[in-house]
DNA sequence: TCCTTGTATAATAAAATGCTTGTATAATTG
DNA sequence: CAATTATACAAGCATTTTATTATACAAGGA
């Protein structure tokens, strides 16, 4: 299952968000997800398996508990995949300036950064 | 269909990459996809419909042709969604420095930027 | 040892996805 | 106007995904 397919499911995205905050015991994840999605423990466990198998999460056994933690590598890959499209929303500036402007835009601006009329970026 | 589900399909990712390069006539997209995936014109048309409906592509009618172009908004949203995970692979530096380091890491470093042992980021 | 707790796995049903073939529609050309 | 070209839509089917229920299994406590 490719990274995007993994991220396609809202339950899995929720789990990843929880893991981004801190590592969690399987039971805690079940609780969070059940509270918001109302699905069974088995269903959550299956999502956790997908996250493990696809490299988004790691498990550590602690007696009869399983502690899940985030592995951000696949997310980084998604981020890298997006690189080829960034020119569409990043201002087209010089090397260093681009680096600076980039993060700023992304964190603050919610409205469109008015780049090109989206025909395609100037490069 | 959510943005990640849309991106989950390799044919659709391929189409988006083609559109990132330049706008294209439907027929050209069909040709590209058929060359690489060997699926029918109808199948490609269905993927194009999904891209339209989910906001990733726009169409312009040109006589009996349809010209597709990229709409990067949904991709930007994915990029923004990733923000909450960036601390895992971005060095934890001061405001401005972070902006600078960020793009650099992402474009050059292929090996892991050895941040935390991924427990979770410091800040 | 037996029960409880925490978690995973198996079987299966239901829903969603992606493809195919066939056809409709619109504009273009002979 | 009939034929052709470019593209979309519809129905049907196979595959995949996600959930359910039932069960297994390991660790710890009574």
From TrEMBL, chains A, B:
HTH arsR-type domain: residues covered: 1-90
Keyword Transcription regulation on entry: yes
Species classification: Bacteria, Bacillati, Bacillota, Bacilli, Bacillales
Entry protein name: Metalloregulator ArsR/SmtB family transcription factor
Keyword annotations: DNA-binding, Transcription, Transcription regulation
GO molecular function terms attached to this record: DNA binding; DNA-binding transcription factor activity
Region (Disordered): 100-123
Residue stretches in coiled coil: none
Pfam families for this protein: HTH_5 (PF01022)
């Amino acid at each position: 299952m490719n990274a995007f397919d993994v991220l396609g499911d809202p339950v899995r995205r929720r789990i990843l968000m929880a893991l981004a905050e801190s590592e969690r015991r399987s039971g805690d994840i079940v609780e969070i997800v059940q509270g918001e999605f109302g699905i069974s423990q088995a269903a959550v466990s299956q999502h956790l398996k997908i996250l493990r198998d696809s490299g988004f999460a790691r498990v550590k056994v602690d007696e009869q508990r399983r502690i899940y933690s985030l592995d951000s590598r696949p997310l980084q890959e998604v981020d890298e995949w997006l690189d080829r499209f960034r020119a569409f929303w990043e201002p087209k500036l010089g090397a260093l300036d681009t680096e600076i402007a980039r993060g700023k835009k992304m964190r603050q601006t919610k409205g469109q950064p008015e780049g090109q009329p989206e025909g395609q970026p100037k490069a």
